[in-house]
Amino acid sequence: MTMPDLEQALDALAGRVSSLREARTAYPADLAPTLDAALAELDTAAELLAEAREALQKAPKRAGGKKDGAQRELKLLRQVFRAFPVPVIVLDSGGVVRRINPETSQMLGSPDGYLVGRSFPLLVDVSRRAAFRSHLTAVLQTGQPAAFETRLAHQGRTHTVQLALTRMTMPGEPQQMVAAVALPTEVQLPEPGAGRPEQSDGALLLAAAKRQDLLVKMANLLLEEETLLRPVALPRATRLLAAEWADWVIADMVRGGVPRRSVVVAPKNHPLGDLVRQVESADPAGSQAVMEVLERGSGVVQEMLDDDSLLGFCADGPLLTAMGAGSMLCVPIGSGDGVLTLVRAHDRRPFTLADLAVMQEVGLQLGLAVRAQTSFQNRSRAADALSASVAPRTLPNVPGYEAAAVYHPGASVGAEFYDVFPVSCGWGFALGGAVGKGEEAASVSAMVRGGLRVLGVWESDPDLVIRKVNEALVAQGAGMFVMAVAGFVKGREIRLSSAGHHPAALLQADGGVRFAAGGGVPLGLAPEAETSVEGLTVAVGETLVLYSDGLISSRNELGEPYGEERLADVLGRCAGQSPSTVVKALEADRNAFSGGQVWDEIVILALRGV
């Protein structure tokens, strides 16, 4: 076949292919005749390729040498190849794209030369990849052409094509090649705006704005108060990414030096079935991509996956194959805290280096949030433990008395304590707090509370117990002082010892209120304690009320303190009521007075004679 004949045949083929496309558009419901004609033209295209190859092989060679002849042959073959009116891809024996003509680039929506050097099976539908490789091997080994239907997906475009494979020998190539002719029978175009961001400046700006919007959304999500209070940072962040950026999102966190699978978010239309459970149960330590990111401390992006084993294996084979992956992106979470993996299906736009950059920032934010959450929760647990160490969960039954208490924490970890405990002569009670806030003050209060409990087992006088606790506090050198009051019950008699505390209030049966002496010097100021000691008789129907500074120091919107006078008025209206009613009445009145604001801890302890 001469060159003019070949050019004329190619022009005629181009015209017939154009007519077939128009027929497919005009009669979309009746594709069978069009498909039969298209397959006939596909055979014609394959024959033309074979004839062109034979013509090149038979072309006379110049006496000047083989090199010039090979170059002329290659030049002629390239001209024919570029002019071919149907998509043609030249593959090597491993399925790697070596040449691609403009019709193929236009069909797949990729720039010229973009797919050269890529593995062609990555464009083939996952379910047909194994069949494609088998056909490719058979064509190379037998020399017999093969044709079959499959799906190609790239840049958000999906094509159902009739694929014809023909073995060929190219001048200057040591190995045999395969020409793949792809005739589309059905095309699904990408959604608007789903093309490559590099196509135009406008699309590039839109993609950059989308990435910036993601960073803002992620920052707002991770800074929410609930994200610190509860372990929701990872689930919320991965759901956000799955909704806008990927089909699959996986978070693997390092615990005890080993990566553990923590979160898996599947495509929203994917059933919660066996595949999701296999991804969840897969060991991230067996993932080459995850371990590489942890080792290097930087992210990786696989724009087109050429190794389906990068994420490990499941019962059905490589995880990425089972997930229908087309591209993958992995970034570190924080500084070695874990790895965030995003996977997109092969029919979606692949991840790019720009996506990698924004996801690295997301991983950094997520790592900071997880660390802050862990630190906050550790401190919260410590605060809860300290609170439990200064306030009993329940009050024991004291013979001859009924007890009730209320405790409200302030704006920070406080230092108030109260307790009812057994002593050598029966029962004792105490209330007080270190002057200060935070964990150190709470630990000092816990030490005082524990000291009162322990020493009360051996001593029958609360004042002696208070003095020994003072000696221990001074010896410890805590640098804090504690206001406290302790009382031991003996029948109807109660002996009180006060160290700088507010006076206890005795509510009498007729509604009268009498305050004890109170006073003394707070514990921890001097080796020798200066206390105020007093004995009270609590008759049946009378209630002894102890309270913290936070109660009477509460202020209203005018800055006025709650005070002991208002306390007495409220108590007077509670005559004959149970201790629980008394403490609730005081609590409600204080809340109304201060508009519900609580700055310092509020503790109220009431014992009523029964």
SSE topology sketch:
Elements: H1 3-26, H2 32-58, H3 66-83, E1 88-91, E2 97-100, H4 102-108, H5 129-142, E3 146-154, E4 157-168, E5 177-188, H6 201-223, H7 225-229, H8 233-244, E6 248-255, E7 258-265, H9 274-281, H10 288-296, E8 300-302, E9 313-314, E10 317-318, H11 319-322, E11 325-333, E12 338-345, H12 353-390, E13 401-408, E14 416-423, E15 426-434, H13 438-456, H14 462-476, E16 482-490, E17 493-499, E18 505-507, E19 513-515, E20 532-537, E21 543-547, H15 549-552, H16 563-572, H17 579-594, E22 602-609
Antiparallel strand pairs: 1-2, 1-5, 3-4, 4-5, 6-7, 6-12, 8-11, 9-10, 11-12, 13-22, 14-15, 15-16, 16-17, 17-20, 18-19, 18-21, 21-22
Helix pairs in contact: 1-2, 2-3, 6-8, 6-12, 12-13, 13-14
Describe this structure in words.
α12 runs parallel beside α13 (438-456). The chain has helices at 3-26, 32-58, 66-83, 102-108, 129-142, 201-223, 225-229, 233-244, 274-281, 288-296, 319-322, 353-390, 438-456, 462-476, 549-552, 563-572, 579-594; strands spanning 88-91, 97-100, 146-154, 157-168, 177-188, 248-255, 258-265, 300-302, 313-314, 317-318, 325-333, 338-345, 401-408, 416-423, 426-434, 482-490, 493-499, 505-507, 513-515, 532-537, 543-547, 602-609. The longest helix is centred in the middle third of the chain and has 38 residues, at 353-390. The chain is rod-shaped and about 125 Å long. It folds into four domains: 3-57; 84-183, 2-Layer Sandwich (Beta-Lactamase); 208-379, Beta-Lactamase; 389-609, Phosphatase 2c, domain 1, CATH 3.60.40.10. It contains 17 helices and 22 strands. The chain has a five-stranded antiparallel beta sheet, with helices on both faces. 41% of the residues lie in helices and 24% in strands. 37% of the residues are buried. With 610 residues, it is of the alpha+beta class.
